[in-house]
């Protein structure tokens, strides 16, 4: 068996912060999303690949070298050109070979052990499922109906979900199923894997479910990104910074080197502050602020602010601010 992390998308739902940075490499606490995933993959000792695109290849190269994994690069530069998950799996088979595969979505943060997941794998397709507990939320995902641990129905983004159990983007597929991808792609949907799983069920192929609880995040929106930060940031990580004696840090936070916290500022809880930021007389909580940003007399809550912004005399709530923006109110 081989492991492959799918990171070939362009994350348009999180633009503008993902225009130049792949979603898998966004920070969650003191690590990136992909670091969190790789820590779990490394426990399996599987030969591991990361599937990405030509546009983000240079971003992933240093990461792949750090972890000792290989890149598979699809020759696309734009969203409309991408191969989609199933199309990318076809390319992986062509480059790496036909085998059993552990497949993991690169924007997927989950609580369970991949070792435990693979112990349940018996050579038949196995998918990880999670109960989101809300039919409205379930409509956004592939919805699973079970009898015991057997999948009896799978529907991608149904208008009326039959359950609140959803597929989470972790699959173990035997080589016999991987060999069917060419046949499926002749008429099938290239992107969402749920359509492929539905197709397998219609062919009478048995699929088993690995059910887990605690937490799961699909980092597809600002809300899910910030919620993941709150769940995974357990303790503070503060590098070499300058801080005023009149400022206060409420843990847990991540504050990267070179940042200056001036005046009467309050940072935290649940704040990520990137390198070389300047924060003066400002309050930041439940938020992510990328490198080189200047905040003066600002209040930031449940917001994401991209790099090298300037925000003055302003209160931001539930906002997403693109890089290099300059926003101020008054003097």
TrEMBL record:
Q: Which organism is it from?
A: Thermococcus profundus
Where in this chain does the record put each Nucleotidyl transferase domain? Answer: 2-234
The family note in this entry says: Belongs to the transferase hexapeptide repeat family.
Q: What is the lineage of its organism?
A: Archaea, Methanobacteriati, Methanobacteriota, Thermococci, Thermococcales
Q: Which PANTHER family match?
A: SUGAR-1-PHOSPHATE GUANYL TRANSFERASE
Tell me if RNA-binding is a UniProt keyword of this record. Answer: no
The family database entries (InterPro entries) matched by this protein are listed as: GMPPB_C (IPR056729), Mannose-1P_guanyltransferase (IPR050486), NTP_transferase_dom (IPR005835), Nucleotide-diphossugar_trans (IPR029044)
**What does the UniProt keyword field contain?**
Transferase
- State whether keyword Transferase applies: yes
Q: Which GO terms describe its molecular function?
A: transferase activity
Report the protein name in the record.
Glucose-1-phosphate thymidylyltransferase
Residues covered by the Mannose-1-phosphate guanyltransferase C-terminal domain: 249-313
Report the SUPFAM superfamilies cross-referenced here.
Nucleotide-diphospho-sugar transferases
One matching Pfam family: NTP_transferase
Q: Which CDD domains match?
A: NTP_transferase
